[in-house]
Each structure stands twice: as C-alpha cells, then as structure tokens.
Write a structure and sequence with these properties.
The chain is an alpha+beta fold and 241 residues long. The protein has 10 helices and 8 strands. The radius of gyration is 18 Å and the shape is globular. Residues 73-241 form the IclR-ED domain.
C-alpha cells in the first residue's frame, strides 16, 4: 500500500497541487523516482515529468547519490520572505542552544502537519537533526502537543483521533504551559516544547529542545522547561518591539 505525502492544502489546480506534493516528498528526505511515486501516489510518468520540470527551475536538485532533494531556488525565494516570528526566534535560538547543548527548533502548524521554520544544532556530539522545511506529523512529539493544545476545537477533534496523546493531556499542557515527549516521534529521542505567542497573545508557534534520551532524560521538562519558557517569552517580547 502506498504511503502518500499530501500537501498541506489543496488549491484545485491539479498540476500545482501535484508539483507541491513532489516538493513535499523530496523535502521529507531525498528520493528516487520510485520513492517519489510511493510518497505522492502519482503515476511514474507524471512524477518524473514534474520532478524534471522542478529540477529545471532549480526547485529540486540531485544529491551525490542522484536522489532528488530541495533545490537552491527554494532558499533564494525564502530569503526574501519576511517572517517576524522566525526572525525573532533566530535571535533567541542560539542562546537556548548554548544553555541546553541540544538541538533547538521552531515549529508552525500547517494543516495536519507541523513545519520546522528555524533550527540550530549543537556543534558536536549526537544530535536530533531536524532541517528547516521538514514536515512532521501532528500526531506525536512535544511540538505537536503544544501546537494542538492551543488550536481551535475543530482542529483538535480532527487530529486527536490519530494522536499518541489524549485530550486530557492537552488540558494538562495548557495548565502547565509546556509539553514533553520521550520516544513518541522517534525512538531514542526526547523533547520539550513551549508555546510562542504573537503581539496579540495568540499561540503561533512552538519552540523546542530535542536530543537523545540518554542526555535529555526521561523527564526532560524538569530539566529544560524553565529555560524554554524564558526563550519563548524572549521571542514574544521581540515581537512587541
């Protein structure tokens, strides 16, 4: 059975939606034509034609193994995009990485997925690498819990059925102000996340610290939640400037 990577939204313009699905599949991890067909559900001829077209426009490129992956034109286009939350986070994440010695990320929810919009890795040692642009499910992980805990009720009802956590746990997260997970999204990985609020106080992102369970421990919130909440507040204050 094919496992498809659906775009976050559907425009109704067939070739555009299929092209976005191809880009999303390649962003998930480098892929060959067979992988591309499996992840998108597209016929081989269609997937190949779209991938070649995207490669011509430098939206896709090939790695050393000949696998398709995101191309340089995506970075060039993204460089001109103003994202106040991401820009504020980029000023705060280095200090959080320095304090924790672990990988740090900023996530936003797009439809049924969360997208990594900023990330920084420790210079050495085993790490939990989440490249910018990565799309992760909303069904597991502390970042997903935070984004869903403050989502609107229809979204919560839609996504909760397939989640590794319950409505009661989301209520506890809202009361506590942060979430943690151990081995939910990926075996051996632990994480802590906190909500990031915009100028109006609305939760628009989740800031996270993640790393190996051996270092983070089985109760990572007890160790890093205070620093994470301080970082989230620092981002919020920058948005008020």
């Amino acid at each position: 059975m094919r496992k498809t990577t659906a775009p976050a939204a559907v425009s109704g313009i067939g070739v555009l939606d299929k092209s976005v699905a191809v880009l999303a599949a390649a962003a998930e991890r480098p892929c060959n034509l067979g992988d591309l067909c499996e992840r998108t559900g597209l016929p081989r001829a269609t997937a190949h034609r779209l991938a070649m077209g995207l490669e011509t426009h430098r939206l896709l490129t090939r790695d050393a193994a000949g696998m398709w992956c995101p191309g340089p034109a995506l970075n060039e286009l993204a460089a001109s995009v103003h994202d106040a939350v991401r820009d504020a986070a980029v000023m705060v994440l280095p200090r959080l990485r320095e304090i924790t010695g672990e990988s740090v990320q900023l996530y936003r929810r797009e439809g049924t997925e969360r997208v990594c919009v900023a990330a920084m890795e420790p210079p050495t040692g085993l790490r939990d690498t989440v490249p910018v642009g990565s799309r992760l499910p909303m069904s597991a992980g502390s970042g997903a819990k935070v984004l869903l805990a403050w989502a609107d009720p229809p979204t919560v009802r839609q996504l909760l059925a397939d989640s590794a956590f319950s409505e009661r746990s989301l209520l506890e997260i809202r009361k506590r102000g942060w979430a943690q997970s151990v081995g939910e999204r990926e075996p051996g990985v632990a994480s802590v996340s906190a909500p990031v609020r915009d100028r109006d106080g609305e939760v628009v992102a989740a800031i996270s610290v993640s790393g190996p369970v051996d270092r983070m421990g089985r109760r990572p919130g007890a160790r890093w939640a205070a620093d994470l909440l301080a970082a989230a507040d620092a981002i919020h204050k920058r948005l008020l400037l």
